[in-house]
Amino acid sequence: MSHESLLLAALFIPVLGALAIAACDRWPDLRETVTLVTAAALLLCVLSLLGPVLGGAQPQASLVQMLPGIALSFRIEPLGMLFALVASTLWLVNSLYSIGYMRANREAHQTRFYVCFALALACTMGIAFSANLLTLYLFYEGLTLVTYPLVTHHGDDEARRGGRLYLGYLLGTSILFLLPAIIITWAVAGTLEFTPGGILGSGLSNAAIGGLLALYMFGIGKAALMPFHRWLPAAMVAPTPVSALLHAVAVVKAGVFSVVKVIVYVFGVDRISGLTSVDWLPFAAGFTIIAASIIALRSDNLKRRLAYSTVSQLSYVIFAAALLTPLSVAGAALHIAAHAVGKITLFFAAGAIYTAAHKTDVSQLDGIGRRMPWTMGAFAVGAISMIGLPPTAGFVSKWFMLSGAMSTGQWLPVAVIAASTLLNAGYFLPIVYRAFFLPAAGEAHGEAPRTMVVALLLTAFATVAMFFFSDVPLLLARRLAGA
Known about the structure:
Blueprint: H1 3-23, H2 28-54, E1 60-67, E2 70-75, H3 78-104, H4 110-128, H5 133-151, H6 157-189, H7 206-219, H8 231-234, H9 240-249, H10 251-267, H11 269-272, H12 280-297, H13 302-322, H14 326-357, H15 368-371, H16 373-387, H17 393-407, H18 411-437, H19 450-468, H20 471-481
Antiparallel strand pairs: 1-2
């Protein structure tokens, strides 16, 4: 099969899987088998593309002409390859986890859940492989719409309220800010194609570049840059596998992926480096990192704490990309993968705790590590990665961020990362301490269903393995940044 055929297959496999899942509504075992087979087929397709991309190839394909000179087109570059690899790998693991979670908690509308999940991955592949801004925008909006039924899955007042915030923030920011930014880019550059070195040229003044950058950064609401972040904790009303999708597999990763892609391929790192009109972005990202960490520190609800941790960690990616050095941009790309495997482990553990012990608050977790040692051991690994300690993936990405900052004598980023690391330790380590070193409280219970435990152990293993075997993501990140 040609590279172009594999690219198109990666886009259509999840769609075909969604149709097959819907057709198996009456047969739950078959429906879940189709889900796993579809996820495995997508992963194999993406892995088949990895070798050519590492070898320097950039497969591309076009489907239809949308506007004069702008086609619905796709091209695989290093950052898109990294994002697709992370999303397709974690979809397979998340599907395994979802089977145990949805059955153990007797969730309703399970077929709709799996169908929307597959469609979300189809949109994610479209975002990862988009060759121009309009293609990215269409799949970005599509991802918002197909994940709305997942956020409102429970159908109660709280779910509907969370869904309204979810749609309001994400559609509002993209229509009010992102779409005008794309139109301005088209008017100035005459193209929307993602191009190494950027496409803006000298058509805008320094002040105008700063304004356009603001439209993009706040228009990409999925990146959760404050003050457009409240949709993320509000969406925690969804089942835990959906929270994992939002935080690790697709939605927020689509946000920070788009941020990095816009900075590298629309503005151009060299083009805007040194411009005072873009100096505000590291401060905005730094504020989000610290403020979200403080809110997480004060949150007793476990999923809310993890949600604000995600808001903070996403701004690490924005912060690193905004430093505009090759090493920091590589660190931003690496952190997309590092955060994905670490945070999905934490959400998997939270869901396992809820399923086995029906506990949702940090204050309820005394001694739970003795009853759920595998789950809480995996949680500890994910927590260490979020803090940024070896031997976990989070250390690798933070190392590149810090190296990029220090290589140019920028000490504010070093201070922000150091302060946030202490805050991360402040809201994660007490959970681990409670779980393993305080007396157990409540009724006796064991681990969650086996498929859930297997899934969270796999992602915990991946979090450690990425520290020792980071060659592939590191090579893709370096090629993106030219480091």
